[in-house]
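If you are new to this repository, start here. Below is one unmodified record pulled from the training split, so you can see the exact layout before writing a loader.
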Amino acid sequence: MKYLVWLNEVMGAGNPRSVRALEHFGSAQKIYNATKTQRETSGIFSKKEITKINKTPLSIATDIISDCINSGIDIIGIGDKRYPTSLRVIENPPLLLYVKGKFPDFNNTPTVALVGPRKVSDYGKKAAYSLSFRLARSGFIVVSGGAVGCDTYAHAGALKAGGTTVLVMGCGINADYLPKNKPLREEVAKNGCLISEYSPKTMATKYSFPVRNRIMAALSLGTVLIEAPATSGALITSRLANEMGRDLFVIPGAPDKPEYKGSNQLLRDGARPLLDLSDIFGEYIPRFPDKINIERAYDTKILEKETKKTSENSQKTNNISKKFNESLSKEAKIVYNCIDKQKFLPEEILNTGLSSGEILSALGELQMEMLIRAVPGGMYELCN
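And here is the target side for that same chain:
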């Protein structure tokens, strides 16, 4: 393991030449023991990498391994049987993973990544929490990145459900990054795991998170984009998932709202709209019939209580004639009040004063809250 740790340090995270070097020389130890001429004539390494390889002692790896032992961090190399197949097959898989917590069986468990912006709307917070809660409760591993905003709500929902959540870091596990989320990381490590390809003390840079995003996308069968403005970093993970041939689900948003500009563009480019949990279940239940429990996903007594806590908009409205969740957005409440029959088409919702985009976004929110559900024929019906 020490030679693999050494190679990871000299080559750097996300370097596609690392795996090429392993394949060419046969092992990290052989790269370490190779002559300068052998390294140069391989045609794999850049001049800068050759210099670093020649100058970096093996002791750097032994120090890192000692640090991992003292911190309770496991190291899973690319040749380890626990290393996920979905990660091994990508173009530039990490040479190793530093892991704190219980590493799940990604090869035999449905896994979905939830991503979104740091500055997330109230609806985005509820959607991330609700989706994560239901997915984790039904047996999915929920993957996210541990940032403030959408990621935090995704991890929190999975933790509350008693499920498994994985936090993929863009720095070392012991790095002093985002102190306000340290309690969240500690909780995830107890009930899931933290993963990083960076050695424990490596600090975050502006480049490390985009590199990290490929791991989130590769670990997951599908990625769910909660919402994203045009320049959101969440779009990087979403596009990587699409390029890897993974499923990409996007929650539709009102076309005139900037917080949905990036996510709506992905829908125009061919991403799958996520209107109901059945969109995800229908895709993965045939592949994991014994792993996914739909009934647990729809047992929402705990969720309803917790969702209210996550909403920052607790103001009550007095003009609501039907019983529904008080944490709904203003648009969703208007649409819900205008539903006057059990089954209906979107175009039958009249006198709302809302645009068609706002109505569709509201219908999506009502589905997330399990107040309505989609039925064949492009129709919806009220849930009892």
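Two things worth knowing about this chain: The CA atoms of residues 5 and 61 lie 5 Å apart. The chain has three domains: 2-71, 106-302, 314-382.
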